[in-house]
Design goal:
- This protein is α+β, with helices and mostly antiparallel strands and 103 residues long.
- The chain has 2 domains: 1-55, no CATH class; 57-102, no CATH class.
- The protein has helices at 3-19, 22-28, 31-36, 39-44, and strands at 56-65, 68-75, 83-92, 95-102.
- It has a 4-stranded antiparallel sheet with strand order 1-2-3-4.
- It is globular and about 35 Å long.
- The model has no long low-confidence stretch (mean pLDDT 91).
């Protein structure tokens, strides 16, 4: 896993969040997530929305394998303390898909 590939994946997610394109973010989710949560529920229910403050700055790449990666990102914060999140991606059909976010 190269930093450039991780940054590319992170920038793609950031672009979708900036555009507030919830359908495209849903399409970025893993097959497992989409099998449990239909698009109508995802678009309607706040509990499924990603709670990330932009911009995101890559802090560290944690890699379990070529099929999984977890990115530690720093989020913009309006307070004095720093805010971080871990974003897990898995590779499905040669594309990086969003598996989860821990804030």
């Amino acid at each position: 896993m190269e930093n450039s590939e991780a940054l590319k994946v992170l920038h793609h997610l950031e672009d979708l969040l900036k555009q507030e394109d919830n359908k495209a973010i849903y399409d970025l989710m893993t097959h497992d997530f989409k099998s449990r949560v239909g698009m109508d529920h995802y678009l309607r229910l706040e509990k499924y929305r990603l709670n990330l403050s932009l911009p995101l700055c890559l802090v560290h790449i944690y890699e379990a394998s070529d099929e999984k990666m977890m990115l530690r990102v720093k989020q913009e914060s309006k307070s004095d303390h720093e805010s971080f999140a871990n974003i897990l991606f898995v590779k499905e059909e040669e594309m990086w898909k969003l598996s989860g976010v821990l804030t």
